[in-house]
Protein backbone atom coordinates (compact mmCIF):
# COMPACT_ATOMS: atom_id res chain seq x y z
CA UNK A 1 0.00 0.00 0.00
CA UNK A 2 1.28 3.48 -0.83
CA UNK A 3 2.38 5.53 2.16
CA UNK A 4 -0.44 7.69 3.51
CA UNK A 5 1.48 10.96 3.40
CA UNK A 6 3.01 13.43 0.96
CA UNK A 7 6.21 15.10 2.16
CA UNK A 8 9.26 16.39 0.34
CA UNK A 9 11.71 13.82 1.68
CA UNK A 10 11.01 11.32 4.43
CA UNK A 11 14.79 11.09 5.03
CA UNK A 12 14.53 14.53 6.69
CA UNK A 13 12.64 12.89 9.57
CA UNK A 14 15.73 12.50 11.77
CA UNK A 15 16.54 16.22 11.57
CA UNK A 16 12.90 17.05 12.18
CA UNK A 17 12.77 14.81 15.23
CA UNK A 18 15.81 16.52 16.77
CA UNK A 19 14.21 19.93 16.32
CA UNK A 20 10.89 18.64 17.68
CA UNK A 21 12.73 17.51 20.80
CA UNK A 22 14.20 20.98 21.25
CA UNK A 23 10.83 22.64 20.61
CA UNK A 24 9.21 20.49 23.31
CA UNK A 25 11.49 22.12 25.88
CA UNK A 26 10.15 25.53 24.79
CA UNK A 27 6.46 24.59 24.71
CA UNK A 28 5.50 24.14 28.38
CA UNK A 29 1.77 24.66 27.76
CA UNK A 30 1.56 21.78 25.30
CA UNK A 31 3.77 19.49 27.36
CA UNK A 32 1.75 20.07 30.51
CA UNK A 33 -1.46 19.39 28.54
CA UNK A 34 0.03 15.98 27.74
CA UNK A 35 0.69 15.42 31.46
CA UNK A 36 -2.71 16.67 32.56
CA UNK A 37 -4.86 14.92 29.97
CA UNK A 38 -2.71 12.04 28.70
CA UNK A 39 -4.25 9.44 30.99
CA UNK A 40 -7.90 10.44 30.53
CA UNK A 41 -7.68 10.56 26.69
CA UNK A 42 -10.34 13.30 26.23
CA UNK A 43 -9.88 13.34 22.45
CA UNK A 44 -10.47 9.60 22.00
CA UNK A 45 -12.72 9.14 18.98
CA UNK A 46 -11.94 12.59 17.60
CA UNK A 47 -10.77 12.51 13.98
CA UNK A 48 -9.21 15.92 13.54
CA UNK A 49 -8.40 17.51 10.19
CA UNK A 50 -5.65 20.06 10.72
CA UNK A 51 -5.11 22.88 8.23
CA UNK A 52 -2.30 24.91 9.76
CA UNK A 53 1.31 25.74 8.78
CA UNK A 54 3.20 22.43 9.00
CA UNK A 55 6.11 23.66 11.12
CA UNK A 56 8.12 22.19 13.98
CA UNK A 57 5.84 23.96 16.48
CA UNK A 58 2.78 22.48 14.77
CA UNK A 59 4.49 19.09 15.03
CA UNK A 60 4.46 19.43 18.81
CA UNK A 61 0.77 20.41 18.63
CA UNK A 62 -0.04 17.38 16.47
CA UNK A 63 1.76 14.99 18.81
CA UNK A 64 -0.08 16.55 21.76
CA UNK A 65 -3.46 15.94 20.08
CA UNK A 66 -2.41 12.34 19.42
CA UNK A 67 -1.22 11.93 23.03
CA UNK A 68 -4.71 12.99 24.12
CA UNK A 69 -6.30 10.23 22.04
CA UNK A 70 -7.11 11.94 18.72
CA UNK A 71 -6.61 10.59 15.22
CA UNK A 72 -5.12 13.37 13.15
CA UNK A 73 -4.54 14.11 9.46
CA UNK A 74 -2.74 17.31 8.46
CA UNK A 75 -2.26 19.79 5.62
CA UNK A 76 -0.53 23.15 5.66
CA UNK A 77 -2.65 26.28 5.25
CA UNK A 78 -0.11 28.03 3.06
CA UNK A 79 1.91 26.89 0.06
CA UNK A 80 5.23 28.26 1.38
CA UNK A 81 5.06 27.71 5.14
CA UNK A 82 5.83 24.01 5.50
CA UNK A 83 9.09 22.99 7.14
CA UNK A 84 9.87 19.84 5.23
CA UNK A 85 11.84 18.23 8.07
CA UNK A 86 8.91 18.79 10.44
CA UNK A 87 6.48 17.22 7.96
CA UNK A 88 8.83 14.25 7.49
CA UNK A 89 9.19 13.63 11.23
CA UNK A 90 5.44 13.73 11.78
CA UNK A 91 4.78 11.45 8.79
CA UNK A 92 7.39 8.99 10.03
CA UNK A 93 5.68 8.96 13.43
CA UNK A 94 2.57 7.66 11.63
CA UNK A 95 0.44 10.77 11.24
CA UNK A 96 -0.73 11.31 7.64
CA UNK A 97 0.71 14.68 6.57
CA UNK A 98 0.26 16.30 3.17
CA UNK A 99 2.54 19.30 2.92
CA UNK A 100 5.58 20.41 0.94
CA UNK A 101 7.25 23.82 1.04
CA UNK A 102 6.59 25.37 -2.36
CA UNK A 103 3.61 23.17 -3.28
CA UNK A 104 1.36 24.52 -6.05
CA UNK A 105 -2.11 25.91 -5.39
CA UNK A 106 -3.62 22.80 -7.02
CA UNK A 107 -1.60 20.63 -4.66
CA UNK A 108 -2.62 22.84 -1.72
CA UNK A 109 -6.32 22.08 -2.24
CA UNK A 110 -5.67 18.44 -3.15
CA UNK A 111 -3.62 18.00 0.06
CA UNK A 112 -6.38 19.63 2.10
CA UNK A 113 -8.84 17.16 0.57
CA UNK A 114 -6.53 14.26 1.45
CA UNK A 115 -6.32 15.43 5.05
CA UNK A 116 -10.10 14.88 5.30
CA UNK A 117 -9.94 11.28 4.11
CA UNK A 118 -10.12 9.31 7.36
CA UNK A 119 -11.50 5.81 6.65
CA UNK A 120 -14.41 6.58 9.01
CA UNK A 121 -14.65 10.26 8.02
CA UNK A 122 -13.49 13.40 9.80
CA UNK A 123 -15.46 14.79 12.74
CA UNK A 124 -13.41 17.81 13.89
CA UNK A 125 -11.53 20.67 12.18
CA UNK A 126 -8.55 22.62 13.46
CA UNK A 127 -8.25 25.53 11.07
CA UNK A 128 -5.91 28.44 10.39
CA UNK A 129 -7.43 30.96 8.02
CA UNK A 130 -10.55 28.91 7.44
CA UNK A 131 -9.64 26.91 4.31
CA UNK A 132 -10.71 23.53 5.75
CA UNK A 133 -14.05 24.92 6.93
CA UNK A 134 -14.51 26.75 3.63
CA UNK A 135 -13.80 23.58 1.62
CA UNK A 136 -16.51 21.54 3.33
CA UNK A 137 -19.09 24.33 3.32
CA UNK A 138 -18.50 25.33 -0.31
CA UNK A 139 -18.58 21.70 -1.39
CA UNK A 140 -21.86 21.10 0.45
CA UNK A 141 -23.33 24.17 -1.26
CA UNK A 142 -22.22 22.82 -4.61
CA UNK A 143 -23.83 19.45 -3.85
CA UNK A 144 -27.07 21.21 -2.92
CA UNK A 145 -26.97 22.95 -6.31
CA UNK A 146 -26.44 26.35 -4.67
CA UNK A 147 -24.12 28.98 -6.00
CA UNK A 148 -20.66 28.82 -4.49
CA UNK A 149 -20.04 31.90 -2.38
CA UNK A 150 -17.10 33.98 -3.58
CA UNK A 151 -13.91 33.27 -1.67
CA UNK A 152 -11.65 36.05 -0.42
CA UNK A 153 -8.50 34.89 -2.21
CA UNK A 154 -10.08 35.21 -5.61
CA UNK A 155 -7.09 33.99 -7.64
CA UNK A 156 -7.73 30.65 -6.01
CA UNK A 157 -11.42 30.47 -6.77
CA UNK A 158 -11.03 28.41 -9.93
CA UNK A 159 -8.62 26.01 -8.27
CA UNK A 160 -11.01 25.46 -5.35
CA UNK A 161 -13.95 24.89 -7.69
CA UNK A 162 -11.95 22.28 -9.64
CA UNK A 163 -10.97 20.45 -6.47
CA UNK A 164 -14.58 20.44 -5.29
CA UNK A 165 -15.75 19.06 -8.65
CA UNK A 166 -13.09 16.33 -8.45
CA UNK A 167 -14.23 15.22 -4.99
CA UNK A 168 -17.92 15.37 -6.03
CA UNK A 169 -17.19 13.10 -8.98
CA UNK A 170 -15.15 10.65 -6.89
CA UNK A 171 -17.54 10.48 -3.90
CA UNK A 172 -21.04 11.82 -4.53
CA UNK A 173 -22.56 13.31 -1.38
CA UNK A 174 -19.22 13.40 0.44
CA UNK A 175 -19.34 17.10 1.32
CA UNK A 176 -22.87 16.95 2.71
CA UNK A 177 -22.00 13.89 4.79
CA UNK A 178 -18.79 15.47 6.07
CA UNK A 179 -20.50 18.75 6.92
CA UNK A 180 -23.05 16.84 9.01
CA UNK A 181 -20.33 14.84 10.78
CA UNK A 182 -18.20 17.82 11.87
CA UNK A 183 -18.82 18.52 15.55
CA UNK A 184 -16.85 21.74 15.65
CA UNK A 185 -13.95 23.85 14.47
CA UNK A 186 -11.28 25.74 16.35
CA UNK A 187 -9.85 28.67 14.37
CA UNK A 188 -6.34 30.05 14.82
CA UNK A 189 -6.18 33.44 13.13
CA UNK A 190 -7.82 36.85 12.78
CA UNK A 191 -8.69 36.36 9.11
CA UNK A 192 -10.23 32.91 9.70
CA UNK A 193 -12.23 34.29 12.59
CA UNK A 194 -13.62 37.09 10.37
CA UNK A 195 -14.80 34.40 7.95
CA UNK A 196 -16.51 32.45 10.75
CA UNK A 197 -18.40 35.47 12.14
CA UNK A 198 -19.42 36.34 8.58
CA UNK A 199 -20.69 32.80 7.91
CA UNK A 200 -22.61 32.82 11.19
CA UNK A 201 -24.17 36.19 10.38
CA UNK A 202 -25.38 34.77 7.06
CA UNK A 203 -26.79 31.69 8.83
CA UNK A 204 -24.28 29.45 7.03
CA UNK A 205 -22.25 28.12 9.97
CA UNK A 206 -23.64 24.67 10.75
CA UNK A 207 -21.46 23.81 13.76
CA UNK A 208 -19.98 25.54 16.80
CA UNK A 209 -16.62 27.25 16.37
CA UNK A 210 -14.11 28.36 18.95
CA UNK A 211 -12.29 31.57 18.12
CA UNK A 212 -8.83 30.73 19.44
CA UNK A 213 -7.38 33.95 18.00
CA UNK A 214 -9.19 36.13 20.52
CA UNK A 215 -7.97 34.31 23.57
CA UNK A 216 -5.76 36.98 25.11
CA UNK A 217 -2.94 34.46 25.31
CA UNK A 218 -3.16 34.09 21.52
CA UNK A 219 -3.67 37.41 19.75
CA UNK A 220 -1.90 39.59 22.32
CA UNK A 221 1.12 37.27 22.27
CA UNK A 222 1.49 35.32 18.99
CA UNK A 223 0.24 38.12 16.72
CA UNK A 224 2.30 40.72 18.59
CA UNK A 225 5.42 39.23 20.21
CA UNK A 226 5.58 36.46 17.61
CA UNK A 227 5.73 38.93 14.71
CA UNK A 228 8.15 41.05 16.72
CA UNK A 229 10.63 38.18 16.39
CA UNK A 230 9.67 36.65 13.07
CA UNK A 231 9.13 39.65 10.77
CA UNK A 232 12.70 40.89 10.74
CA UNK A 233 13.89 37.27 10.72
CA UNK A 234 12.03 36.79 7.43
CA UNK A 235 13.35 40.00 5.85
CA UNK A 236 16.93 39.18 6.87
CA UNK A 237 16.87 35.58 5.65
CA UNK A 238 15.38 36.77 2.37
CA UNK A 239 17.56 39.77 1.66
CA UNK A 240 20.42 40.16 4.18
CA UNK A 241 19.73 43.85 3.87
CA UNK A 242 20.99 46.31 6.46
CA UNK A 243 17.92 47.27 8.44
CA UNK A 244 19.36 50.03 10.61
CA UNK A 245 18.72 53.45 9.17
CA UNK A 246 16.30 52.27 6.49
CA UNK A 247 12.79 53.69 6.32
CA UNK A 248 10.14 51.01 6.73
CA UNK A 249 6.40 51.48 6.31
CA UNK A 250 4.08 49.16 8.22
CA UNK A 251 0.51 49.17 6.91
CA UNK A 252 -1.87 48.42 9.79
CA UNK A 253 -1.30 48.81 13.53
CA UNK A 254 -3.43 46.01 14.96
CA UNK A 255 -1.78 43.19 16.92
CA UNK A 256 0.39 42.03 14.01
CA UNK A 257 1.20 45.63 13.04
CA UNK A 258 2.28 46.45 16.59
CA UNK A 259 4.63 43.47 16.65
CA UNK A 260 5.91 44.19 13.14
CA UNK A 261 6.62 47.87 13.83
CA UNK A 262 8.42 46.89 17.05
CA UNK A 263 10.41 44.28 15.14
CA UNK A 264 11.65 46.81 12.58
CA UNK A 265 12.32 49.45 15.21
CA UNK A 266 14.31 46.91 17.21
CA UNK A 267 16.48 46.35 14.15
CA UNK A 268 17.16 50.07 13.89
CA UNK A 269 14.84 50.93 11.02
CA UNK A 270 13.01 54.26 11.01
CA UNK A 271 9.43 53.05 11.05
CA UNK A 272 6.29 54.75 9.76
CA UNK A 273 2.77 53.42 10.11
CA UNK A 274 -0.44 53.70 8.08
CA UNK A 275 -3.87 53.05 9.62
CA UNK A 276 -7.56 53.51 8.89
CA UNK A 277 -8.74 53.15 12.50
CA UNK A 278 -8.30 56.35 14.54
CA UNK A 279 -7.73 54.39 17.76
CA UNK A 280 -4.90 52.31 16.28
CA UNK A 281 -3.50 55.41 14.53
CA UNK A 282 -3.39 57.23 17.88
CA UNK A 283 -1.77 54.21 19.52
CA UNK A 284 0.92 54.14 16.85
CA UNK A 285 1.58 57.86 17.22
CA UNK A 286 1.81 57.59 21.00
CA UNK A 287 4.14 54.60 20.66
CA UNK A 288 6.38 57.05 18.84
CA UNK A 289 5.75 56.15 15.20
CA UNK A 290 4.99 58.69 12.49
CA UNK A 291 1.52 57.89 11.17
CA UNK A 292 1.18 58.87 7.58
CA UNK A 293 -0.23 57.91 4.20
CA UNK A 294 1.26 55.21 2.02
CA UNK A 295 1.02 57.64 -0.91
CA UNK A 296 3.35 60.07 0.89
CA UNK A 297 6.03 57.45 1.54
CA UNK A 298 5.79 55.22 -1.46
CA UNK A 299 8.53 56.88 -3.52
CA UNK A 300 11.06 57.21 -0.72
CA UNK A 301 10.74 54.32 1.77
CA UNK A 302 12.97 51.25 1.59
CA UNK A 303 10.76 48.52 3.07
CA UNK A 304 6.96 48.05 2.90
CA UNK A 305 5.10 45.53 5.05
CA UNK A 306 1.34 44.89 5.05
CA UNK A 307 -0.25 43.59 8.27
CA UNK A 308 -3.91 44.49 7.73
CA UNK A 309 -5.80 41.30 6.88
CA UNK A 310 -7.38 43.54 4.23
CA UNK A 311 -7.24 43.40 0.45
CA UNK A 312 -5.48 45.62 -2.09
CA UNK A 313 -3.54 47.68 0.45
CA UNK A 314 -0.39 48.03 -1.67
CA UNK A 315 -1.73 48.46 -5.18
CA UNK A 316 -0.13 48.56 -8.60
CA UNK A 317 -0.03 52.35 -8.60
CA UNK A 318 2.03 52.21 -5.37
CA UNK A 319 4.35 49.50 -6.66
CA UNK A 320 5.01 51.54 -9.81
CA UNK A 321 6.19 54.53 -7.78
CA UNK A 322 8.60 52.69 -5.51
CA UNK A 323 12.30 53.40 -5.64
CA UNK A 324 14.82 50.96 -7.05
CA UNK A 325 15.25 47.83 -4.90
CA UNK A 326 12.45 48.62 -2.46
CA UNK A 327 11.56 45.53 -0.43
CA UNK A 328 7.86 44.60 -0.36
CA UNK A 329 6.27 41.93 1.80
CA UNK A 330 3.12 40.89 3.62
CA UNK A 331 2.73 39.28 7.02
CA UNK A 332 -1.10 39.11 6.99
CA UNK A 333 -2.79 35.76 6.39
CA UNK A 334 -3.70 35.96 2.69
CA UNK A 335 -1.78 37.14 -0.34
CA UNK A 336 -4.38 39.69 -1.43
CA UNK A 337 -2.90 42.60 0.58
CA UNK A 338 -0.43 43.36 -2.22
CA UNK A 339 -1.64 43.38 -5.84
CA UNK A 340 0.79 40.69 -6.95
CA UNK A 341 -1.46 39.57 -9.82
CA UNK A 342 -0.93 42.96 -11.46
CA UNK A 343 2.83 42.32 -11.49
CA UNK A 344 2.64 39.00 -13.30
CA UNK A 345 3.19 40.53 -16.73
CA UNK A 346 6.39 42.28 -15.60
CA UNK A 347 9.86 40.77 -15.78
CA UNK A 348 10.50 38.51 -12.77
CA UNK A 349 13.96 37.28 -11.82
CA UNK A 350 13.96 34.61 -9.17
CA UNK A 351 16.79 35.27 -6.70
CA UNK A 352 16.18 32.22 -4.53
CA UNK A 353 13.18 30.39 -3.10
CA UNK A 354 10.48 32.88 -2.12
CA UNK A 355 12.52 35.91 -3.20
CA UNK A 356 11.86 37.59 -6.56
CA UNK A 357 13.15 40.75 -8.19
CA UNK A 358 10.58 42.39 -10.42
CA UNK A 359 11.38 45.03 -12.99
CA UNK A 360 8.85 47.84 -13.18
CA UNK A 361 8.14 49.86 -16.35
CA UNK A 362 10.24 52.74 -14.96
CA UNK A 363 13.27 50.44 -14.83
CA UNK A 364 13.18 50.38 -11.02
CA UNK A 365 13.22 46.94 -9.46
CA UNK A 366 11.36 45.75 -6.39
CA UNK A 367 12.21 42.78 -4.22
CA UNK A 368 9.01 40.84 -3.47
CA UNK A 369 9.01 38.37 -0.60
CA UNK A 370 7.09 35.07 -0.78
CA UNK A 371 5.03 36.31 -3.74
CA UNK A 372 3.05 38.38 -1.26
CA UNK A 373 2.22 35.47 1.03
CA UNK A 374 3.03 35.72 4.72
CA UNK A 375 6.76 36.28 4.73
CA UNK A 376 7.60 35.28 8.28
CA UNK A 377 6.58 31.72 7.42
CA UNK A 378 7.61 31.83 3.76
CA UNK A 379 11.06 33.37 4.16
CA UNK A 380 11.79 32.28 7.72
CA UNK A 381 10.38 29.69 10.11
CA UNK A 382 7.50 31.61 11.65
CA UNK A 383 7.20 32.45 15.33
CA UNK A 384 9.40 30.82 17.97
CA UNK A 385 8.13 27.77 19.85
CA UNK A 386 7.51 29.50 23.17
CA UNK A 387 4.86 31.89 21.87
CA UNK A 388 3.27 29.19 19.69
CA UNK A 389 2.94 27.06 22.81
CA UNK A 390 0.49 29.62 24.20
CA UNK A 391 -1.50 29.71 20.95
CA UNK A 392 -1.57 25.95 20.58
CA UNK A 393 -2.48 25.25 24.20
CA UNK A 394 -5.61 27.30 23.45
CA UNK A 395 -6.13 25.10 20.38
CA UNK A 396 -5.89 21.94 22.46
CA UNK A 397 -8.33 23.28 25.07
CA UNK A 398 -10.72 24.34 22.30
CA UNK A 399 -10.61 20.89 20.68
CA UNK A 400 -11.28 19.20 24.04
CA UNK A 401 -14.17 21.56 24.75
CA UNK A 402 -15.81 21.04 21.34
CA UNK A 403 -15.23 17.29 21.25
CA UNK A 404 -16.38 16.55 24.81
CA UNK A 405 -19.08 19.22 25.22
CA UNK A 406 -19.91 20.21 21.63
CA UNK A 407 -23.59 19.34 22.06
CA UNK A 408 -23.89 22.13 24.67
CA UNK A 409 -23.08 24.68 21.99
CA UNK A 410 -25.46 25.90 19.29
CA UNK A 411 -23.82 26.79 15.97
CA UNK A 412 -21.97 30.05 16.54
CA UNK A 413 -18.57 31.46 17.39
CA UNK A 414 -17.32 31.24 20.97
CA UNK A 415 -14.25 32.28 22.95
CA UNK A 416 -12.67 30.14 25.65
CA UNK A 417 -13.49 31.28 29.20
CA UNK A 418 -11.07 33.66 30.93
CA UNK A 419 -10.14 30.99 33.50
CA UNK A 420 -8.60 28.95 30.68
CA UNK A 421 -6.87 32.00 29.19
CA UNK A 422 -5.27 32.72 32.56
CA UNK A 423 -4.39 29.04 32.90
CA UNK A 424 -2.55 29.11 29.54
CA UNK A 425 -0.56 32.15 30.67
CA UNK A 426 0.20 30.54 34.04
CA UNK A 427 1.61 27.45 32.30
CA UNK A 428 4.23 29.64 30.61
CA UNK A 429 5.54 31.53 33.63
CA UNK A 430 7.91 29.01 35.19
CA UNK A 431 9.91 28.47 32.00
CA UNK A 432 10.96 32.13 31.96
CA UNK A 433 11.35 32.49 35.71
CA UNK A 434 8.36 34.72 36.36
CA UNK A 435 7.37 35.03 40.01
CA UNK A 436 3.66 35.76 40.36
CA UNK A 437 2.40 37.74 43.35
CA UNK A 438 -0.55 36.19 45.16
CA UNK A 439 -3.48 38.36 46.10
CA UNK A 440 -4.41 38.53 49.77
CA UNK A 441 -8.03 37.71 50.55
CA UNK A 442 -8.80 41.30 51.59
CA UNK A 443 -7.18 42.64 48.43
CA UNK A 444 -9.18 40.26 46.27
CA UNK A 445 -12.39 41.39 47.95
CA UNK A 446 -11.40 45.04 47.56
CA UNK A 447 -11.00 44.74 43.78
CA UNK A 448 -13.91 42.34 43.43
CA UNK A 449 -12.17 39.17 42.26
CA UNK A 450 -11.29 35.84 43.85
CA UNK A 451 -7.78 34.94 44.95
CA UNK A 452 -7.54 32.31 42.21
CA UNK A 453 -8.87 34.59 39.45
CA UNK A 454 -10.19 35.47 36.93
CA UNK A 455 -8.43 38.72 37.66
CA UNK A 456 -10.16 40.92 35.12
CA UNK A 457 -13.74 41.50 33.97
CA UNK A 458 -14.76 40.37 30.47
CA UNK A 459 -14.60 43.93 29.14
CA UNK A 460 -10.95 44.43 30.11
CA UNK A 461 -8.80 44.83 26.98
CA UNK A 462 -5.20 44.16 28.08
P1 LIG B 1 -6.11 43.39 13.49
O1 LIG B 1 -7.51 43.52 13.07
O2 LIG B 1 -5.75 43.49 14.93
O3 LIG B 1 -5.20 44.47 12.73
C1 LIG B 1 -5.32 44.85 11.40
C2 LIG B 1 -5.21 46.38 11.36
O4 LIG B 1 -5.12 46.82 10.00
C3 LIG B 1 -6.42 47.06 11.97
O5 LIG B 1 -6.02 47.95 13.00
C4 LIG B 1 -7.05 47.81 10.80
O6 LIG B 1 -7.64 49.06 11.18
C5 LIG B 1 -5.87 48.02 9.88
N1 LIG B 1 -6.22 48.22 8.46
C6 LIG B 1 -7.24 47.66 7.74
N2 LIG B 1 -7.22 48.10 6.47
C7 LIG B 1 -6.19 48.97 6.38
C8 LIG B 1 -5.66 49.76 5.32
N3 LIG B 1 -6.23 49.75 4.11
N4 LIG B 1 -4.58 50.54 5.57
C9 LIG B 1 -4.01 50.56 6.80
N5 LIG B 1 -4.47 49.85 7.85
C10 LIG B 1 -5.55 49.06 7.64
O7 LIG B 1 -5.60 42.00 12.91
P2 LIG B 1 -4.26 41.23 13.34
O8 LIG B 1 -4.55 40.28 14.43
O9 LIG B 1 -3.18 42.23 13.51
O10 LIG B 1 -4.01 40.34 12.04
C11 LIG B 1 -3.65 40.92 10.79
C12 LIG B 1 -3.45 39.81 9.77
O11 LIG B 1 -2.33 39.01 10.14
C13 LIG B 1 -4.60 38.83 9.65
O12 LIG B 1 -4.70 38.41 8.31
C14 LIG B 1 -4.17 37.66 10.52
O13 LIG B 1 -4.84 36.49 10.19
C15 LIG B 1 -2.71 37.63 10.22
N6 LIG B 1 -1.81 37.00 11.19
C16 LIG B 1 -0.57 36.63 10.71
C17 LIG B 1 0.36 36.06 11.55
C18 LIG B 1 1.67 35.65 11.01
O14 LIG B 1 2.42 34.96 11.72
N7 LIG B 1 2.04 35.99 9.82
C19 LIG B 1 0.08 35.87 12.98
C20 LIG B 1 -1.22 36.33 13.39
C21 LIG B 1 -2.12 36.89 12.52
Q: Please, could you describe this protein's structure?
A:
- The chain is α/β, with parallel strands linked by helices.
- It has helices at 13-25, 28-37, 56-67, 84-92, 105-115, 131-143, 157-170, 174-181, 190-201, 216-239, 255-266, 278-286, 294-297, 316-321, 375-378, 385-405, 418-427, 441-447; strands at 47-51, 71-75, 97-98, 124-127, 184-187, 208-211, 247-251, 270-274, 290-291, 303-306, 326-330, 347-352, 355-359, 365-369, 412-414.
- It has an 8-stranded mixed beta sheet with strand order 9-8-7-10-11-14-13-12, covered by helices on one side. It has a 7-stranded parallel beta sheet with strand order 3-2-1-4-5-6-15, with helices on both faces.
- The relative contact order is 0.12.
- The structure holds 1,4-dihydronicotinamide adenine dinucleotide.
- 1,4-dihydronicotinamide adenine dinucleotide (NAI) binds next to helix 9, helix 10 and helix 11.
Task: Give a nutshell description of this structure.
The chain is α/β, with parallel strands linked by helices and 462 residues long.
Name the descriptors.
single chain; 462 residues; alpha/beta; eight-stranded mixed β-sheet; seven-stranded parallel β-sheet; 15 strands; globular; binds 1,4-dihydronicotinamide adenine dinucleotide; EC 3.13.2.1
- With strands numbered from the N-terminus, the spatial order across the biggest sheet is 9-8-7-10-11-14-13-12
End-to-end separation? 53 Å
SS content category: alpha/beta
Strand content: 5-15%
Rg over CA atoms:
22 Å
Give a short account of the largest sheet.
8 strands, mixed
Low-confidence stretches: none
- Average pLDDT, rounded to a whole number, is 97
Query: What ligands are attached or bound here?
Result: 1,4-dihydronicotinamide adenine dinucleotide
Count of separate DSSP helical elements:
18
